[in-house]
Specification:
With 195 residues, the chain is mainly alpha-helical. It folds into 3 domains: 38 residues; 107 residues, P-loop containing nucleotide triphosphate hydrolases (Rossmann fold, 3-Layer(aba) Sandwich); 44 residues, no CATH class. It is built from 7 helices and 4 strands.
Length: 195
């Protein structure tokens, strides 16, 4: 009992010191960015999401983008954070609104695999990939002249059959598969050795 209390006190002291240090480092980093007038990647995402959320600014941004944004490609979509999806959804929503100053075919293309998600530390939520598929396909379905194709690749050119089999083994148990939105018994792409 006494040893547990001592261990808890030590853990508290170390955690407190780390939090104090982390707070100082983050504060220095934010001040350095401000002094230099710099933005990091996260700042760009947050400011863009905020800009596209403000009705007064969003209309102007969409008007300007209408002249040059015809295609959206989201690669590694399983590692896209909810805030990044917010930006993508607001941009894609205009694709399917039916209002454009130009007569062009616009495309939205996203590629991802929940089992490959590695960016949770950056806010990625693999389930949002499936959620956004539903959201954006619904936007397309509501549009007058838009078509939506939901395709699953059945052949992998990036991985060998052994790698794909190992991934299937890891995600085979029910508890490991519980966090995925894909059906457990869905066909996996068959791997092909790289050329």
């Amino acid at each position: 009992m006494l040893l547990d209390r001592i261990a808890s006190a030590e853990a508290y002291a170390v955690t407190s010191a780390l939090l104090t240090l982390g707070d100082a480092v983050i504060g220095d980093y934010e001040r350095a960015k401000q002094l230099r007038g710099a933005l990091d990647f996260q700042d760009l995402v947050v400011k863009t999401a905020n800009l596209l959320s403000r009705s007064d600014a969003a209309a102007w941004v969409h008007y300007k983008l209408d002249r040059g944004l015809d295609h959206i490609l989201v690669d590694e979509a399983q590692d896209t954070s909810p805030r990044q999806w917010q930006v993508i959804e607001r941009l894609a929503g205009e694709f399917f609104s039916g209002q454009s100053a130009r007569d062009v075919i616009r495309t939205f293309f996203a590629v991802g695999d929940e089992k490959q998600s590695i960016y949770s530390f950056q806010g990625a939520v693999p389930a949002w990939f499936a959620r956004q598929r539903e959201t954006i396909s619904a936007l397309a379905a509501d549009a007058a002249n838009a078509r939506w194709y939901d395709l699953e690749l059945q052949l992998s050119f990036r991985s060998t059959p052994d790698v794909l089999a190992a991934v299937d083994t890891i995600f085979g148990p029910e508890d490991a598969h519980a966090g995925l939105t894909q059906a457990k018994n869905a066909d996996r792409p068959r791997g092909r050795p790289p050329a």
